[in-house]
């Protein structure tokens, strides 16, 4: 099998073949999810814990649904009712959970690298549901699946990523994934929201949105977080919308069949025009949500297979 | 007690020489060079290994008072002896800070536990908070060799100007940390491709130059003697050169880690590679190595900073910065020598002679009459670094598991042997 990873910590660890394996399997789960009876037993008997140090509704419920549809026992732990508030360290939390023998641990944390650190300390498979500004691998995979289904391919496309790239883990994972699949990448952002050193990543940089959108096949918008608006990164919401908000006029610079994506939740009227977001001919934003569940099912299925194989080897080793 | 070191390779930073010779020590001082062994002398055969002045290390953090579980004067002293460091210049960033003659007296008394010499720097401002100057006169009388708020940079230019003017009137040395605190707030990496890939909040190398330019302007204004603790980026070098050319009483240091590691060593969020300031690009590292070799950077320090496991086993952004370095200082410096970047006399100029001279200490020399603070080492001896063998109470070294060359064989302080390597 082409998918060998023990954990899913980032796109950086995956090769093109592994990415394709995930997407192919996810395609099958999309079909399953559209049936009335959406049940499988590939995770039956397994325990999945969703450990969210940062609040999240969409990602957490998507992971929860994915686990339940595959037959796992799913438990949600959010920071509000955990002992982290009482001063317990990340490692201690991990050790405590590990003692309960979960099989899949889905983790979101506000610090870059925190999920990697946690993965070193537990026996189960760890899925990164977003760590700081580092990576959000399942988001990039679901975006890739959405693009592949809409465009019929995931190569040689011109893809523009626009918005708060500096603080976005979604942008980072997408950059890595789409780069690995050999696409032409453009980053569009005001200089205050462009990370340093990106010129070495092999993408084209634009601070003029119209220029950056010219001929793009895919327009990927990013959420502008409220704290950025207060932090002096941009002068105001209305100026941002004027220069970097996606509307029909700016989208006209992209290819005529360009699709519009957004990882959600959207700020209508800040980074994207409300009507455009709802335009079923251009916007694939609802598809992204649907693909999210399927991609997470595929990731957990593949990791569970590797986990079973690893445990099987251990038992054989013990008997020998 | 007379000691005679024969068959040695003498590293003399003052003369800039690296040649075979012998050295005689009497009464804790160097008695003669290249003479024959006097009657009754204990003869030490150096087997052609290097004999150099002991390292004078400015900026060592010791956990007393407040954090003795991380490092005590005794453990730091043992580590220093094993690393060939014969004079430790301790930092005042303790809890509480060393900002009164009373706390200075306490640490001076505690330092008697150490087998090597320990001198203390005091805070420049009360509580190191950059507002009110400490009793610079009293502290100087009580033995403070320099004044510094360590990594806390005062934004209060007026208060800083007053402290500097007052220090100048007493001839006291001020040690600054060149870093613009606004620009570097919250950062734990140097901005660039690596930090962006890893998603670590980062600071531009320009923050160092801004901090340095500000400090140098205040030095020009007040005339104080000033030492920049760590210059780590190429962008700072022209400003430093201009200040020296203008005749300001300015010296600069750098840390051994910034000379031997770069930003990519952080790898997969390894917190033992988190430093203040953060590790720089390879281009910057090479520029700083060259600046040490040509003397535009005067001093290399270990910036020894003990941190316990709990403060390092955290996500990178939250982890404590710094590394223990007293014992790895010399072998790490040998990397620069073996790479052909710098000669041994030039290294010991930066690690022994210059720091001693800057602080007005008689150490750091092999000349007749100088204190017999010596390190005997084999620059080529290879070993595999194991952090759990370190004598420091804290084991946070970035060199764990590294192949290193350069072993300290013996260390002498005032003619007394304080360390000898196991056979």
Sequence-ordered SSE layout with sheet pairings:
The complex is a heterodimer of chains A (320) and B (423).
Chain A: H1 16-33, E1 47-52, H2 58-69, E2 73-78, H3 90-98, E3 104-109, H4 114-119, E4 125-131, H5 137-151, E5 158-162, H6 169-180, E6 184-188, E7 204-206, H7 209-213, E8 218-221, H8 226-230, H9 237-244, H10 248-251, E9 259-261, H11 274-278, H12 285-319
Parallel strand pairs in A: 1-2, 1-3, 3-4, 5-6, 5-8, 6-7, 8-9
Helix pairs in contact in A: 1-5, 1-12, 2-12, 5-6, 5-12
Chain B: E1 2-12, E2 17-26, E3 29-33, E4 42-45, E5 50-53, E6 55-60, H1 73-83, E7 85-90, H2 101-110, E8 117-122, H3 136-141, E9 144-148, H4 157-169, E10 173-176, H5 181-184, E11 189-190, H6 193-198, E12 202-203, H7 206-222, E13 225-228, H8 237-245, E14 250-255, H9 256-260, H10 282-293, E15 299-301, H11 309-312, H12 329-338, H13 344-358, E16 374-384, E17 403-413, E18 416-420
Parallel strand pairs in B: 1-4, 1-5, 6-7, 7-8, 8-9, 9-10, 10-13, 11-12, 13-14, 14-15
Antiparallel strand pairs in B: 1-2, 2-3, 5-16, 16-17, 17-18
Helix pairs in contact in B: 4-7, 7-8
């Amino acid at each position: 099998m082409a998918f060998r990873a023990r954990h899913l910590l980032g796109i950086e660890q995956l090769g093109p073949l592994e990415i394709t394996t995930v997407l192919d399997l996810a395609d099958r789960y999309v079909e399953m999810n559209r049936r009335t009876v959406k049940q499988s037993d590939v995770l039956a008997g397994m325990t999945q814990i969703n450990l969210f140090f940062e609040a999240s509704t969409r990602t957490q419920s998507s992971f929860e649904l994915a686990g339940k549809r595959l037959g796992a026992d799913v438990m949600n732990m959010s920071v509000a009712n955990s002992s982290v508030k009482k001063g317990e360290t990340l490692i201690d939390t991990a050790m405590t959970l590990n003692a309960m023998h979960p099989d899949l641990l889905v983790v979101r944390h506000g610090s870059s690298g925190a999920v990697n650190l946690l993965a070193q300390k537990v026996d189960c498979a760890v899925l990164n549901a977003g760590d700081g500004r580092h990576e959000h691998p399942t988001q990039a995979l679901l975006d890739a699946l959405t693009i592949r289904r809409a465009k019929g391919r995931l190569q040689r496309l011109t893809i523009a990523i626009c918005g708060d790239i500096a603080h976005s883990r979604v942008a980072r994972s997408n950059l890595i994934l789409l780069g690995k699949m050999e696409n032409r990448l453009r980053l569009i952002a005001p200089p205050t929201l462009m990370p340093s050193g990106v010129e070495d990543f092999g993408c084209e940089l634009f601070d003029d949105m119209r220029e950056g959108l010219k001929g793009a096949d895919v327009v990927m918008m990013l959420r502008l977080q409220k704290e950025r608006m207060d932090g002096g990164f941009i002068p105001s919401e209305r100026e941002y919308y004027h220069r970097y908000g996606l509307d029909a006029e700016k989208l006209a610079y992209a290819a005529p069949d360009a699709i519009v994506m957004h990882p959600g939740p959207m700020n209508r009227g800040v980074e994207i025009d409300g009507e455009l977001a709802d335009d079923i001919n251009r916007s694939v934003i609802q598809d992204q949500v649907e693909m999210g569940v399927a991609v997470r099912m595929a990731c957990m299925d593949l990791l569970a297979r590797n986990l079973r194989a690893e445990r099987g080897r251990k038992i054989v080793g013990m008997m020998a | 007690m007379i000691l005679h070191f024969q068959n040695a390779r003498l590293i003399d930073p003052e003369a800039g020489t690296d040649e075979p010779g012998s050295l005689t020590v009497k009464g804790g001082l160097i008695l003669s060079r290249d003479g024959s062994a006097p009657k009754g002398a204990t003869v030490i055969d150096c087997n052609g290994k290097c004999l150099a002045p002991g390292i004078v290390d400015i900026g060592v953090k010791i956990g007393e008072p407040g954090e003795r579980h991380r490092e005590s004067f005794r453990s730091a002293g043992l580590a220093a002896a094993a690393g060939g460091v014969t004079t430790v210049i301790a930092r005042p960033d303790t809890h509480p800070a060393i900002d009164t003659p009373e706390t200075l007296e306490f640490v001076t008394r505690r330092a008697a536990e150490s087998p090597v010499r320990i001198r203390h720097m005091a805070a420049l401002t009360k509580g190191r908070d950059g507002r009110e100057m400490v009793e610079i006169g009293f502290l100087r009388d009580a033995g403070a060799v320099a004044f510094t708020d360590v990594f806390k940079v005062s934004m209060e230019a007026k208060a800083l100007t007053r402290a500097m003017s007052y220090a100048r009137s007493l001839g006291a040395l001020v040690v600054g940390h060149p870093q613009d605190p606004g620009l570097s707030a919250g950062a734990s990496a140097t901005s660039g491709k690596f930090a962006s890939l890893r998603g670590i909040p980062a600071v531009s190398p320009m923050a160092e130059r801004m901090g340095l330019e500000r400090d140098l302007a205040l030095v020009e204004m007040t005339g104080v003697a000033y030492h920049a603790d760590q210059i780590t980026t190429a962008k700072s070098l022209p400003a430093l050169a201009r200040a020296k050319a203008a005749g300001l009483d300015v010296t600069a240091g750098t840390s051994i880690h910034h000379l031997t590691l770069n930003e990519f060593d952080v790898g997969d969020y390894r917190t033992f590679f988190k430093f203040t300031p953060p590790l720089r690009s390879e281009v910057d590292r090479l520029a700083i190595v060259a600046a040490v070799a040509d003397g535009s950077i005067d001093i290399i320090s270990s910036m020894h900073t003990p941190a316990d496991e709990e403060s390092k086993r955290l996500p990178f952004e939250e982890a404590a910065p710094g590394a223990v370095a007293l014992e790895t200082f010399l072998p790490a410096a040998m990397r620069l020598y073996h790479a052909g970047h710098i000669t041994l006399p030039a290294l010991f100029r930066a690690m022994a002679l210059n720091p001693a001279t800057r602080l007005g200490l008689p150490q750091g020399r092999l000349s007749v009459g100088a204190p017999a603070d010596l390190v005997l080492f084999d620059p080529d001896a290879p070993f595999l670094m194991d952090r759990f063998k370190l004598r420091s109470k804290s084991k946070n070294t970035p060199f764990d598991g590294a192949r290193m060359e350069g072993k300290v064989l013996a260390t002498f302080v005032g003619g007394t042997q304080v360390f000898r390597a196991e056979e």
